[in-house]
């Protein structure tokens, strides 16, 4: 088990000799992006994100230790790129999503401030645990918008 974890970390850090494996998990055309476009399209009811991910995967090949796309797959890749752009315009950057994210960021900041001041009327036990967790506090200081996005988006 430990060997598999070490292997996965090497692939993730792009330290594994087969460099194309890193491209599969971290590139402009990685498997996560293919997955979330389809999933977000389905759950939001927006058809623009519905891409032919199976065809894209089928058209991928490895050449000189890099992922390449077969010539027949160019249209599918073009559709994928356009779909990503349309999903950003229609879903991810929609005024309601952006507004909810801003409200959540402000709510998290207010909660953190009240818990830091130990204002017992506002800071309940469950929120205290939430805001005082070391990892969350560090993440929140680094990027409150990042946490808001994490709570608002993909599940």
What does this structure look like?
With about 160 residues, this protein is mostly helical. Helix 6 packs across helix 7 (about 125-130). Helix content is about 70%, strand content about 5%. The protein has a two-stranded antiparallel ribbon. The chain is flat and about 60 Å long. The two termini are about 25 Å apart.
What's the arrangement of secondary structure elements?
Layout: H1 2-12, H2 20-25, H3 31-44, H4 53-59, E1 60-63, E2 66-69, H5 74-92, H6 95-116, H7 125-132, H8 134-142, H9 144-152
Antiparallel strand pairs: 1-2
Helix pairs in contact: 3-5, 6-7, 6-9, 8-9
Number of strands: 2
Q: Roughly what is the average pLDDT, rounded to an integer?
A: 81
Decide which structural class fits the backbone: mainly alpha
Strand content: 5-15%
State the end-to-end CA separation: 27 Å
Q: Which oligomeric form is depicted?
A: single chain
Please give the radius of gyration in angstroms.
20 Å
Q: How would you describe the shape?
A: flat
Helix content: 55-70%
Residue runs with pLDDT of under 50 for 5 or more positions: none
* Main sheet attributes: strand count, strand direction, barrel closure: 2 strands, antiparallel
Short recap of the structure:
This protein is mainly alpha-helical and about 160 residues long. The protein has 9 helices and 2 strands, in the order ααααββααααα. The model has no long low-confidence stretch (mean pLDDT about 80).
Question: Any descriptors?
Answer:
flat; 5% strand; 155 residues; 68% helix; two-stranded antiparallel ribbon; mainly alpha
